[in-house]
Amino acid sequence: MDSRQFLGLQATHNPHRWVLPVVTGISTGGGFLYGGCGLGAAVAAMEGTSGRRAVWATAQYLSYAKPGEVMDIDVTLAVHGHQITQARAVCHVGDREILTVNAALGDRDLEASGQWEKMPTNIPRPHECKERPHVLDWSGTVSGRMDQRIIKGREEIEELDGTPGDGQVLLWSRIPEVIEGIDAATLAILGDFVPMGVGQSLGIRGGGNSLDNTLRIGTLVPTEWVLLDIRIHMVGRGFGHGLVHMFAEDGTLMATASQSCIVRFWRDMPGPGPAGKAKK
């Protein structure tokens, strides 16, 4: 299975229109399309229409698509040059716009290269790490289709006691169903974890809803697991901001994902913050 099959993305007779049936398997436990799957589908659609690989893509999340709905993805190739295509994808359910994605796609024959951001050292391998526990029943959702092993972070719900952390979470992550190699769409799905990092960094039983996500893609290499180095930069005014570095097992920095999110508490979950107080 590749990333398009995982998402359920379908081509149409019009090369500029794609469709994504929204099902539980690409949705959150809250019952709406997972932001990383929306961005991944848009990136895959733009790559399919242009015939080029994504360099970067940025999504603005506007509304929610729910299981049972079908999201149309309309691709526009605004500029199609010799080496680079500038494109956008408008993703909508009927007249309701769900997200808009702008992107650049292409490859250039240039020998110069380098990587200055390094993967954290002395970290255990995935099989040596504890599986990330799920607070809620996420079976059948996109979270249930991911395999994640926690290196640094709060493993138990009791640890989310309102005590702030240092702003970093480390996870090994993979999508076992996607066995045909890492691509930009897969990294879009795996990289949507700034909201989770916000909850961990604040020490709250919560996270957030994404406002945006900017994916920047470098060199892709074969790897089963991807290391997510989640860095939360700041939280204020009810919003959180952070970045995810995505490393292959050999240390190659394959992509980064930068996000802002609305900070929210989990419903009906006792503990620090408004949700816990309301429960009491």
Automatic annotation (TrEMBL):
InterPro entries, A to Z: ACOT8-like_C, Acyl-CoA_hotdog, HotDog_dom_sf
Pfam families, A to Z: 4HBT_3C
Residue ranges of every copy of the Acyl-CoA thioesterase-like C-terminal domain listed in the record: 126-263
Annotated protein name in UniProt: Unannotated protein
Species assigned in the record: freshwater metagenome
